Structures are given as C-alpha cells and as structure tokens.
Amino acid sequence: MTRNLTITARKADRQNCRVFGSVKHLNSEVDARILNLSVTGAALETKTPLHAASGSKVRIEAENLGLLEGIIRWKHNGRVGIQFDVNSNARAQVSSYFRFFHKEIRPVLAVRQLRAATKAERPPHLATSTPKPLR
C-alpha cells in the first residue's frame, strides 16, 4: 500500500465478487466469503471469528482461485483485509479467476409494491403471459 498525504491507498483496484472458501491460520480453519478481490489483496467475510492478529500469515483456499497466501492487514466486525504475498503466484491466480470464472455482481434492487396496483395497471409478467396468435 502506498501513502499519499497520510491516506493509505490500494495499489490495485478491487472488484466485487462472491467466492466461497476457507481461511487457514496455524491449525484453525474458518469458512469465508471473498467480498472483493484484486491482484494485491482481498476483503473477506468470515462465518465464525478468525483468531489471528493483524500481521499474521494466512492461507485462503477457494475452488476458483486455488491457494493464496497473505498477511492480515485489518479486521473489523467479522471482516478481514488480506494483502497477498508478493513472492506468491497470487497475481496469476487472480488474473485467471477474472478471465475464466468471474461474473459481474449487480446490486439487488428494491422490489416495488405491486399489491397496490390494480391488475389493469400491472404489466404482464413474461413467464405468465400468453403469446398472441399470429394473423
């Protein structure tokens, strides 16, 4: 991470993702979900508390990513920031994930209240509408 006017900035942009895997520290293993990912690091959400301090070495295992090693940079409310080791092949593994497996994640939009609308005002649903016969 580089410092600019006492503000810590990331070296690479993170992209949101939903990859499930596990985090290993010493002899403990915790299920986790990778929230965002870059070639230099990742943010994880752990299912149970990870008993490791900032600066601890960890391993992340995920089906689409393989094995990544890194250091914990921050922990807060069940979330963990990991900086990947520069001597590992993390850059190639993350690039491969984005090339072959990554699907863009879109935010879930709020569903509008359809109950208040009458049947005449409500647009027909594509799956339930019947096609009109051709003339």
Number of strands: 8
Q: Calculate the terminal CA-CA distance, rounded to whole Å.
A: 66 Å
| Shape type | globular
Roughly what percent helix? under 10%
What does this structure look like?
- With 135 residues, the chain is mostly beta strands.
- The protein has one helix at residues 90-100, and strands at 2-4, 7-9, 15-25, 28-37, 41-46, 57-62, 66-76, 79-84.
- It has a six-stranded antiparallel barrel with strand order 3-4-5-8-7-6. A two-stranded antiparallel ribbon has the order 1-2.
- β3 and β4 form a beta hairpin.
- It is globular and about 70 Å long.
- The chain starts with a strand and ends in a 35-residue tail after the last helix.
Q: In a nutshell, what does this entry contain?
A:
InterPro entries: PilZ_domain. This protein is mainly beta and about 140 residues long. Helix content is about 10%, strand content about 40%.
Give the key terms:
two-stranded antiparallel ribbon; 8 strands; PilZ domain-containing protein; mainly beta; 41% strand; 135 residues; PilZ_domain; cyclic-di-GMP binding
Can you lay out the helices and strands and say which pair or pack?
Blueprint: E1 2-4, E2 7-9, E3 15-25, E4 28-37, E5 41-46, E6 57-62, E7 66-76, E8 79-84, H1 90-100
Antiparallel strand pairs: 1-2, 3-4, 3-6, 4-5, 5-8, 6-7, 7-8
